[in-house]
């Protein structure tokens, strides 16, 4: 059942001590977190330790942490563990250089891609019908849950889901960029 839930629902369950929700989060993100760490360290054991430390801390702080977006939170935690590793002098100069290169190159290229994508998405979102646009913005740009949106607008959760589906279908259809590349970053995320 946990595999079908979105990140927000999993976070809510985890705060209530639901171990299966925590396990699902681990299954979804641990591999990509490990690969992110491997891009910096190239040492399997260190990267495994970093990911484990992130999840140990995450579980321990589950009731206190105010996590809005799960994936960015987890990857920021990996980065924090990396810097802890550096601070504790457990990293070579070569690893430190690789970290700086990875961080700078990812930051620049991701920023450029993000800015370009954000501009294109804004143009397309502005073409949505008013209610559909409003719901999509609340969901994707203000990170509100379907339930929060439904309460705020006085409509059913199903109506919110329908409008998000409508917006996603429109955006998928109209988000074709150069050379036919279709950007589906958050367009494919769950309702």
Automatic annotation (TrEMBL):
Q: Report any one BP term from Gene Ontology.
A: DNA-templated transcription initiation
Where the record annotates domain RNA polymerase sigma-70 region, the positions are: 25-90
Query: InterPro entries in the record, alphabetically?
Result: RNA_pol_sigma-70-like (IPR039425), RNA_pol_sigma-70_dom (IPR014284), RNA_pol_sigma70_bacteroid (IPR014327), RNA_pol_sigma70_r2 (IPR007627), RNA_pol_sigma70_r4_t2 (IPR013249), RNA_pol_sigma_r2 (IPR013325), RNA_pol_sigma_r3/r4-like (IPR013324), WH-like_DNA-bd_sf (IPR036388)
Q: Which GO terms describe its molecular function?
A: DNA binding; sigma factor activity
- UniProt keyword annotations, A-Z: Sigma factor, Transcription, Transcription regulation
Question: Out of the domains of life, which is the source?
Answer: Bacteria
Record bears the keyword Signal:
no
Q: Does the keyword Signal apply?
A: no
Q: Where is the RNA polymerase sigma factor 70 region 4 type domain?
A: 125-171
Any Pfam family:
Sigma70_r2
Tell me the protein family, please.
Belongs to the sigma-70 factor family. ECF subfamily.
Q: What's the protein here called? A: RNA polymerase sigma-70 factor
């Amino acid at each position: 059942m946990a595999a079908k839930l979105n990140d927000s629902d999993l976070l809510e369950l985890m705060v209530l001590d639901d171990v299966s929700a925590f396990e699902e989060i681990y299954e979804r993100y641990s591999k990509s977190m490990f690969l992110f760490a491997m891009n910096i360290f190239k040492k399997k054991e260190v990267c495994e330790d970093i990911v484990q430390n992130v999840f140990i801390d995450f579980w321990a702080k589950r009731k206190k942490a105010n996590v809005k977006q799960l994936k960015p939170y987890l990857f920021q935690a990996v980065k924090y563990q990396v810097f802890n590793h550096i601070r504790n002098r457990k990293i070579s100069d070569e690893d430190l250089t690789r970290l700086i290169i990875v961080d700078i190159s990812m930051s620049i290229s991701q920023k450029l891609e993000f800015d370009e994508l954000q501009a294109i998405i804004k143009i397309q979102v502005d073409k949505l019908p008013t209610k559909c646009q409003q719901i999509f913005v609340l969901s994707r740009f203000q990170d509100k849950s379907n339930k929060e949106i439904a309460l705020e607008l006085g409509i059913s959760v199903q109506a919110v889901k329908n409008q998000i589906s409508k917006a996603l279908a429109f955006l998928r259809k109209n988000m074709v960029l150069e050379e036919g590349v279709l950007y589906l970053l958050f367009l494919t995320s769950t309702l």
